[in-house]
Design a protein that fits this description.
alpha+beta, wza like fold, four-stranded antiparallel beta sheet
């Protein structure tokens, strides 16, 4: 039977997905991805073109408000949309405004924005760790291993993860979780499939052992 502690953690994962409007699926034992694929984020660098229309070819970095400027169309919301969806939306806009009859629109991400988690304490590499571009969350065991691992004096069974939850209206709330990474890595929890997922902007602090 899954302990109350892990039921609570799974509940928080559902809350996180609801708050951010994203449905996550397991891609590998180490990662979670969005069900509908990567969505354009602020800071991504886009290349947008219309076949045989060089005046419409642009390269832009998505600003904080997610609004880019397109030739003949003007301001256009591009954030939180999969690339193929954005291509369709731009095509429809050109047609609706009577600019082109059957435009062939291509959108590509030339550079992904970097999203970090932050490690401190008894780890070999302190500071920011960049998550892979298309990853929404990463298993804490693999993340710590990929970022350099624990030091010899790390207290692996009591790692603290601080997360900020953002709500409508600008309200933010921080919560700190205590994670037994040692047991998770050994598969010695009650459920061998238990994982703790780390999200962008999470802060991971690993205390030292008491001798």
């Amino acid at each position: 039977m899954i302990s109350l502690k892990f039921l609570f953690l799974f509940f928080l994962l559902d809350v996180f997905s609801f708050v951010y409007g994203q449905k996550l699926i397991q891609a590998t034992p180490a990662t979670l991805k969005e069900e509908n694929g990567y969505r354009i984020r602020q800071g991504d660098k886009l290349a947008i073109s219309v076949l045989n229309e060089p005046d419409c070819n642009i390269k832009q970095t998505v600003p904080n408000d997610g609004v880019i400027r397109l030739s003949y169309i003007g301001d256009f919301k591009a954030i939180n949309i999969p690339v193929k969806n954005l291509e369709s939306l731009i095509k429809q806009e050109y047609i609706l405004k009577g600019i082109f009859l059957r435009p062939i629109v291509n959108v590509s991400i030339t550079e992904y924005s970097k999203r970090f988690v932050y490690l401190s304490g008894a780890v070999n590499k302190k500071g920011p760790f960049a998550l892979p571009p298309e990853i929404e969350a990463m298993n804490i065991v693999e993340l710590i291993s990929m970022s350099g691992g624990f030091t010899d004096i790390a207290r692996k069974n009591k790692v603290f993860v601080t997360r900020t939850y953002y709500f409508q209206g600008g309200k933010a709330e921080q919560k700190t979780f205590e994670v037994d990474v040692e047991s998770l890595s050994r598969g010695s929890m009650q459920n061998r499939n238990d994982k703790f997922w780390v999200y962008p902007e999470d802060q991971i602090n690993v205390p030292e052992r008491l001798f």
